[in-house]
Amino acid sequence: MGVVRTRIAPSPTGFLHIGTARTALFNYIFTKKYQGQFVLRIEDTDIERSDEKFEMDIIEGLKWLGLNWDEGPEIGGDYAPYRQSERNYTYAKYTQKLLDENKAYYCFCSQEELEAQRADLISEGLAPIYSGKCRNLSKEEIAEKLNGNNKYIIRFKMPGKKIFFDDMIRGNLEFDTELVGDFAIAKNIGIPLYNFAVVVDDFEMKITHIIRGEDHISNTPKQIALCEALDFPILQYAHLPLILGHDRSKMSKRDGATSIIEYKKQGFLPEAMINFMALLGWNPGTNKEIFSIKELEKEFSMERIQKSGAIFNIQKLESINAHYIKKMTLEKLADLCAPYFKKAGYKTNDEKLKKIIKLEQERIKKISDILEIAKFFFEPSDYLAEILIWKKSNKEKALATLKDVLKNFESVADNNFNIQNLKPILDILTEKHNGAGEVFWPLRVALSSQESSPPPLEIAEILDKKETLKRIKIAIDKLMQI
Ligand code: GLU
């Protein structure tokens, strides 16, 4: 393969969502695999709907995912500028060329006229294509209308023929352009519309492969026809399967159709997002599920991309995320968790934080879970006294052991209150009260206010002596009231 040049071309009319992020990822890994160049182009031709805040969100999201580009708006490159709103002079040149060669024409039809025509065609069950009314206006008629300041757009003369292309994912495709008609390519000489701007930019930026969502497949024949009219080479296309919600319908907010930065806020890791997104449509052909981006660069192949829609499964994302969290170093995980504690107003320090994280690492699916999981270290919640009683025991035994634990713990000096010194005490009490369950269960619940939690001595050491004794006393009071 020659030099590979790809692009991600988001329109800043919304936040970076999973569909565009996955398209960026597939472009990125394909490009890396062939040591090519990956371009970021901001497609802001729709001035009314484009917003700088969306552009910033898109850039932040792509950077967070680590999908770095070789050329783009801020970093520049040989084919700058990379923002369409700054490239009007380029489009003007090609619009003029098409007009001069009679491959495009001015259309003065009013919006109302066009809409009425559309409605008529649809009601007759026909394709709602443009009538061609302005296709053959004479030079004089055009000049007169332009002089009269009549509103216009520029339309491309769609050749009435079939267009074929070989999609890298979907194979040979055929489109009948009779069903497309003469479509609008520009609002005026320098203000292009999407299909035209894309074709011009992909050519000017020497793009070789267009990898994008299947929702663009119907644009492809229009773009190929434009390429032919402008004598541009026809590029390689790959249309990725759509991402569908859990019930195979269009992705909704509930299925995760939200900004990528939102996933970051919820505590998903970029490496997990990358891994998860790679599996949205690509199948490695083995049972392997965990892929680093470097592995993807090596193992990815277009042939293994499915044609059918890819179902978005949030549980899968969570389980992949949990996998990466389990593998993370304590230091890094503590750093990621710290802001959540801070925001909740829980005071902690490095040492305490690491101890908590070490105990809970296995249970965290996403970083934000840490608050719910570890809340009890900072504030006990209310619980039913009954849960203090181990299933093979009774209230009297639970009370007796807790009182015994309290008495023994009270005698440990503050600065000796750690697992090492507490363990022998619990060993003796276990012996005395006939089994670990009799001692560990009520103590664990007393300290954590919940039935499932890490072992009691680990919790006690983190809580410190004062808080441990306080919680045991509360548990004793609770038991005495039932
Ligand atoms: N700007 C288009 C979009 O955001 C992408 C265009 C393309 O990839 O050709 O959907």
Give the termini separation: 78 Å
Global geometry: elongated
Oligomer: single chain
> Which structural class should the secondary elements be placed in?
alpha/beta
The helix content is: 40-55%
Explain how this protein is built.
This protein has 482 residues and is α/β, with parallel strands linked by helices. Among the domains are: 1-75 and 241-327, Rossmann fold (3-Layer(aba) Sandwich); 329-377, Glutamate-tRNA synthetase, class I, anticodon-binding domain 1 (Helicase, Ruva Protein, domain 3, Orthogonal Bundle), CATH 1.10.8.70; 380-482, Arc Repressor Mutant, subunit A. Helices cover 46% and strands 10% of the residues. The strands form five sheets. The protein has a four-stranded antiparallel sheet with strand order 3-4-7-8. A two-stranded parallel sheet has the order 1-2. It has a two-stranded antiparallel sheet with strand order 5-6. The model has no long low-confidence stretch (mean pLDDT 96). The structure holds glutamic acid. Glutamic acid is lined by residues 9-11, 43, 198, 212, 216.
Secondary-structure topology with pairs:
Blueprint: E1 5-8, H1 18-33, E2 37-40, H2 52-65, H3 88-100, E3 104-107, H4 111-123, H5 139-147, E4 153-156, E5 162-167, E6 171-176, E7 184-188, E8 191-192, H6 194-204, E9 209-213, H7 220-229, E10 236-240, E11 243-244, H8 260-266, H9 270-278, H10 293-299, E12 310-311, H11 314-327, H12 330-344, H13 350-360, H14 369-374, H15 395-410, H16 419-432, H17 436-448, H18 456-463, H19 465-480
Parallel strand pairs: 1-2, 9-10, 11-12
Antiparallel strand pairs: 3-4, 4-7, 5-6, 7-8
Helix pairs in contact: 1-10, 6-7, 9-11, 12-13, 15-16, 15-17, 15-19, 16-17, 17-18, 17-19
